[in-house]
Amino acid sequence: MSAVVSPALAARAGAPAAAGAPPLVVAHVAKSFDADGRVVPVIGDLSLTLNEGEIVAIVGPSGCGKTTLLNTLCGLIAPDAGRIGWFGKEMSGQPAGVGYMLQKDLLLPWRTALRNVMLGLEIRGVGLSEAEERAHVMLDQLGLHGFADHYPTTLSGGMRQRVALARTLVNEPDVLLLDEPFAALDFQTKLLIESDTARLVRESRRSVLLITHDIEEAVSVADRVIVLTKRPTRVKAVYDIALGTERTDMIAARESAGFVDYVRRIWADLDVTRQ
Amino acid sequence: MNGSPLPLRATAPGGVDAATQAAAARRLAAHRRARLRATLLVILSQIALLAAFLALWEYMTAFDKQAAFMFGSPSAIAGFLMTMARDGSLWRDTYVTGVETLLGFLVGNVIGTLIGLSLWYSRFVSRVIEPFVIALGSIPIIALAPIIIIWFGTGLTSKIAMSTLSVVIVALVTSYKGAVGVDEDQINLMRTLGASKFQIFRKLVVPASLADIFAGFKLTVGFALIGAIVGEFMSSSEGLGHAIFKAGSLYIIPKVFAALVATIALALVLTFIVGKVEKLLMPWRRLG
Ligand SMILES: Nc1ncnc2c1ncn2[C@@H]1O[C@H](COP(=O)(O)OP(=O)(O)OP(=O)(O)O)[C@@H](O)[C@H]1O
Ligand SMILES: [Mg+2]
């Protein structure tokens, strides 16, 4: 099926239960919160599948439960109902091989860029010299050569988010869960970092679930866009994006023929004016 | 070379030329000089204010025997400082109080910070002990002095105990506040990276609490000193508190002030050291 498979994925594929299973299957997940004794249903009934090497974008009205969904997927909160399967196995606790990144870069101010990138490797007990080596390579790939010894306070917003991306990618996750990671960046920086992310992710056939408010970002980056309704949220529409261009150059993607049409249709689906 | 209509040097393509760089360096140097001048002005104003205050004090007591007796005078205070320095009592008393304060400060902060940080581990335990901590924290330290002297004697140990007790609750509360104030998203990130609770504690909670812990250190320098001095008031044969108490009961008011000057100097030196250690331990805070 694929030419390049990440080592972790290949290892998992060896397990009989996981053979050929998509990285992530979400079936009929529901979640409510208690707000002052009132039960507020946030996720109504949500199902989706993330295939290997696929980038799926999720757009939806503000406050509809996108972040809640992501937190459920990576085991930070438990769903009330439904099933979540990682690589064909029922989820229990924190899933392995999953990277998580937010709009806030969450860099530790007392660590240099390099040591921030090394955080996950350190936690998993990777040796110091190997961790340093891998972190250096990752920083270089994201255009941060020469900034390894900088503290976060001395880096620009775009550079900080690149360090955060390096911190996520250096652990070689099979799946990335991204929650509006580029929302705070200016337009040029955003296009560049989107392109770099798409390139690195597609090169290694990692899968991505990207939450975004930016419909143009969703259409230009993703293979599939899922539109959610407002609370209690469920899937409203799914778009398979076929732009017919190399999907690692966001400028080309935004200039391709079908782009504007997809954006318009998704915009209409989101129904922003009726909020 | 470029067709840009705006002759903006700094943004010209092809990098920054030597002239621009030199101009930037000049601007930076000018900026630094301006900042230095501002700091200098502040220091000079402070010296002037102090001098004016001392001059007024000296003038008001110079021709009035009763005022001189009640309030002392800067020259009399300086005289006593001189005498105390010559006969060695100034150094001995400062040393004794300094040791009591420092040990109380260290023991109180180590115990308080360790408990405060480790309370992060258990929401349950911290909720259980919260009212007790508040109750203990509200006891005026002087009310404990008689018991402390019964328990620890009249020597050095009782002063260190007093000093420790006046520090420990503050250290506990500030470090606990720091630990529970850590960004929830940051903790979640650590969890998704597979961190154990202990790893989250060591790699995130402890370093993230350092700023609050040091704020507590700065606050407790004064508390440690109060504890030591109150301990010396109760019963002692040496120390600055002893000197103040003795001079006060003999109505030698300039001598009280002289010992007070030494006490203030001690507090300033200790605060200065804490500030230096803070800069040393948190180099990233100097940036940005
Ligand atoms: N721990 C919680 N307790 C109670 N209510 C919560 C909690 N977390 C989220 N909510 C509520 O759930 C709803 C969905 O929140 P969520 O952050 O998932 O939305 P979102 O789609 O990510 O929004 P945005 O697009 O603004 O990021 C909100 O109305 C929020 O107030
Ligand atoms: Mg959100």
Automatic annotation (TrEMBL), chain A:
All copies of domain ABC transporter, residue ranges: 24-255
Domain of life: Bacteria
Gene Ontology MF terms in the entry: ATP binding; ATP hydrolysis activity
Pfam families membership: ABC_tran
Signal peptide: none
Keywords associated with the record: ATP-binding, Nucleotide-binding, Transport
Family membership noted in the UniProt record: Belongs to the ABC transporter superfamily.
Protein name, entry field: Spermidine/putrescine ABC transporter ATP-binding protein
Automatic annotation (TrEMBL), chain B:
Protein name from the UniProt record: ABC transporter permease
Keywords, ordered alphabetically: Cell membrane, Membrane, Transmembrane, Transmembrane helix, Transport
Domain of life: Bacteria
Cell location: Cell membrane
Domain ABC transmembrane type-1: 90-274
The organism's taxonomic lineage, starting at the top: Bacteria, Pseudomonadati, Pseudomonadota, Alphaproteobacteria, Hyphomicrobiales
Topology versus the membrane: Multi-pass membrane protein
One Pfam short name: BPD_transp_1
Annotated TM spans: 36-57, 102-121, 133-154, 160-183, 204-230, 250-275
Family: Belongs to the binding-protein-dependent transport system permease family.
Any GO BP annotation: transmembrane transport
GO CC, alphabetical: plasma membrane
InterPro entries: MetI-like, MetI-like_sf
Keyword Membrane: yes
